[in-house]
Every structure is written in C-alpha cells, then in structure tokens.
Amino acid sequence: MLTVIIGTTVSLLIPMLIQFTTSLNDKNMDAVLEIVPVIFTNLVTILKISNIDINRKQFKELYNLMSQEWKSLKIKEEIRILDTVTERGSKVAYYYRTALLTSLVFFTLLPLVSPFLDIVLPLNETRLREQVFRLNYLVDGDEYFYPIYFHSIWSSIVSVITIVSVDSVYMVITHHACGLFAICGNRIQRLTQNTNSIANDVANQRNIYLQLKDCTIVHKRAIQFYELIDKINRNSFLLQIGMCMISISLTAVQTLMHLDQPREALRIGLFLGAQKFHLFFMSLPGQRLVDYSLELSTNLYSSQWYQTPMRMQKVFYMMQIRSGIPCTISAGGLYDMNIENFGMIFKSCVSYFTMLMSLRE
Predict the structure, then answer these.
(1) Which of 20, 44, 200, 237 measures 20 to 30 Å from 138, CA to CA?
(2) pLDDT tens profile 154-213
(3) pTM to 2 decimals?
C-alpha cells in the first residue's frame, strides 16, 4: 500500500515539476503560482504516509495502549465517558472525510463539463477542454485528454483518501487521550462526593486512597499517551503547516485571477476551501486536547479535596500542579495546534495574499 501511494503521488509530481520548470523558464509567474499549491498537496500526502511508516512502532504502541485502557476499565460510567468522547472524535473524522471527498468529486468532474456539452449541445467548434491540473506530460494535451485526465483523477483520489485516512486516525487517537482526562475528572468528583465518610471510616478511607492512586496512574498514562502523539507528529506538522500556509495564499490569488471564468474559479475555489478545511481540522483535535486537559484542573479545584485527609491532599496537590499545564500538540515546537493559532495563520495567509496581489500588479 505504501508503494502504491508513494508511486502514484510521484507519478503525478513528475509532470508537475516539468510544468513548474517550464513556467519558470518562460517567466510565466501565474502558471508558477498555480502549480506550487498542487505540488505541496502531493508532498503533504507523501509526508503523512511516510510519517506513519517511519513511526510504525510508536503507532503500534499507541494502539496497544488504547486496547489496554479499554480492557482495564471496569466501571460502566467510565466506559460510557470514554465511549462518548471517542465517538465524538469519530464523528468529527466522519464530517471531515465527507466534506473533503465531496469536494474531490466536484473538483474532478468539472473538467468533464466541456466534453459532456459537446455531446449534448454540440457547437460548430469543439469547446475548450481543461484538465484537472495544468501539467506538462510532454505530449499533446488535446490528443491525450482522457489518459491524462484519468491519471490525474486516480492520483487525486489516492492523495485525498490518504490525507483523510491519516487525519482521521489522528483525530480518533487524540480524542482517546481526551477521554482519559475526562475519566480522571469524573473519578475525582466521585471520590470526593462524601467527605464525611472518608474522614470517619478508616477502612473506607484506605479504599478511597487506593482508588485515588489508580486515578493518578490513569492521569500519568493519559499524559504519556499525549506525549507519544506529540512526539510522532511534531516534525511532520511543522512541514505541513508551512506548506498549507503557502498553498492557501497562492490558491487564493489564483481564485481572484479567474473570477472572469466562473467554472475555473469554482474549481480553484473548491481546492482553496478543501485546504482551509484541512488546516482547520488539523488544529481542532489539538484544541480538544487542551480543553480536556485543563478541564481536569477545573474538576480538581471544584472538588472537596480540602476536606480529605492530608495524605490525599498531597496527591491532589501534585495532580493540580501538572493539570495546570495544558497538553498541547506542537508543530516543531514553534506552533501549537489549536483554534486560536489557526485564526492567526489564517490572518497571515490573508496578509501573504495581499502582498502577492500587490507584487503581481
């Protein structure tokens, strides 16, 4: 599968690079601006699937940890909490896949409008045919329209399915970490509900203390799970964010340039929307992880920890110190994956777009 995905992506990169080099030699900057986002999209595909292959052992460790957590849970309420949170991640991944795959269908069908109209409403001359991408295959584009079209379609399908599959896995495992933090918060609230019985019953006090100890173990495993996710994706996310920023800015310029051509503007606009959607849903799981990790701190402070025995308060104090530090997914240590930073990046893309338009004029 890895060979098929990378081989297919590289097979499309070759005519892209030929087109890029030709446009650069001809000093056709509009063509250069158009092909760069497509090149970056293919590079992102290779980066995502290569990151999984390189970190195969770490991903296997993540899956094993997930399996162990599900098996270790005995209380129905905690199973329900983890199931609810992970199901929420699955729904987010489903909406993400649906949106991108729907955009892919419209994006790939638009070039067939002209051939279809030539059959249904023929003119005295053949309508201008546009490919999915403007690439240089070193052959006559009109003569080999369909072979070029189907190669572009196949490569696009492989690329988009790879992207949405890898991102869906990331969303689900991140929400699993969120579920572990939610379980810890629920245990804290449950253990401190009846402080009078804890203070007066020595046997119950010992039982509660053991449960609190198990809670700290779950908290530690949740942090280890988060750290493993961050370690796997840290370098990959940095490159992806950089390429996404450049691609969005250049594609926005292309959309504005083709406003006088509605069908072409729609095609490029779909590509632009998919890029923004991709960047947003890369940031969303990181925001959820921050929210759930900080929510544990809120659960600790709102519980009746101050009425528990001193040795329990010491445990609460250690958990409070750590839970006050948000668990953030980082892109190379330079960028935190959250919604606030997504907004900042979007503003930066608008600034780059304005600069590119002024330079083009």
Answers:
(1) 44
(2) 999 999 999 999 999 999 999 999 998 888 888 888 877 765 555 555 666 677 777 778
(3) 0.86
Residue 98 has which token pair? 């649906």
State the Cα angle at 103 between 162 and 99, rounded to 5°.
Answer: 75
Distance in angstroms (rounded) separating the CA atoms of residues 17 and 104: 22
Q: Identify whether the C-beta of residue 154 lies closer than 8 Å to the C-beta of residue 8.
A: yes
